[in-house]
Amino acid sequence: MGWGASGRNGGQVIPGLKYDPDQLIERYGQERGERLIDTSSRNADVVFELIQRHAIECDAQRHGWLQPAATQAGIQRIESRAAQWAARGVEVEWLTREACAERLGTAAYLAGWRDPRAGSLNPLAFVRGLARAASAAGAQLHEGSAVTGLARQAEGWRATTARGEVTAERVLLCTNGYTDTLQPGLARSLIAANSFQIATRPLSAEEGATILPRGEVASDARKLLFYFRRDAAGRLLFGGRGPFHDPRDPTDFRHLISGMTKLYPALKGVEIDYAWGGRVALTQDSMPHVHEPAPGLHVALGYNGRGVGMGTHLGSLIGRHLGTQALADALPLPLTPIAPIPLHGLQQLYVAAVIQYYRTQDWLER
């Protein structure tokens, strides 16, 4: 439980999706767009309500999300984003350069905004708390029993594992960045890109006094963004893109240490207690996908870096309606066919090309 992205993510609980409200309406139309806006706006609410309801001890904090920009082009993007959410009743806060420096502890950014709906948690503790709550409610949880075969039978679905078989009326696949070949074409509908993180040793009161002093989480407006927060022990957790392969040695994390010390020069040489990586499921349209490839078989995945909030909320909606005629109507996302990405076998080249393109865009904006 929690071995994959659900336990290794950045612990940032951010509402919304990759697209801003106006973009969602443009892409999906007024009715569907508004449903997506309303649902994604409540992502953080669902997470923190679950934590409270089941008394999950996971260092949950709800002090907001800061998105700073280092370029004028970045400022224009986040000004529009903040204005769109403000128009929908969110009490956003605009941050000048001076306010950004005070809230972040770095002078690297020109301006930013704060979304008060967001927060943070210890992701592994959160998923273990959900597992305990599910078990207490009567769910049977089985670890170390990967499904190696899935076949439709007269009585439902037969899932085959190395230890035996399970027959079920309904099956839900939620494998995200760790999707394999169990469902034909599914793995080829995603790009499983790596996101890497480092965590410093606990900072002293003096070292950490100015770094995110109000407890917000942060991710900047760059194309190749950095995301960072403090944990309960006072560490600075700092994340960003990783190479396509899983971590192999300390050199894989040098770009994060370099990025961290550019933002916080005083931390140069500080000990790194932990370094790790995990796969993020990226979709071609940057939206989560929900599929029903066969009766009784559903798929939900592809959160594009927003899985803590959107994955939890979507899972809650599916859980309430799975197996009912109301499922499609209850979901804000349409049920779509599985569509493999063309030339998916070249995904390493895709990712490398996109990273280079984004790096160039960030450089040009500077």
UniProtKB/TrEMBL annotation:
Top-level division of the source organism's lineage = Bacteria
Q: What class of enzyme is it?
A: oxidoreductase
| Origin species | Salinicola lusitanus
Known SUPFAM superfamilies for this protein?
A: FAD/NAD(P)-binding domain
Q: Which PANTHER family match?
A: FAD DEPENDENT OXIDOREDUCTASE DOMAIN-CONTAINING PROTEIN, SARCOSINE DEHYDROGENASE-RELATED
- Name it: FAD-binding oxidoreductase
The answer to whether keyword Secreted applies is no
A Pfam family the protein falls into: DAO
Residue intervals of the FAD dependent oxidoreductase domain: 2-318
Single annotated GO MF:
oxidoreductase activity
As recorded in UniProt, its EC number(s) are 1.-.-.-
> Which UniProt keywords are given for this protein, alphabetically ordered?
Oxidoreductase
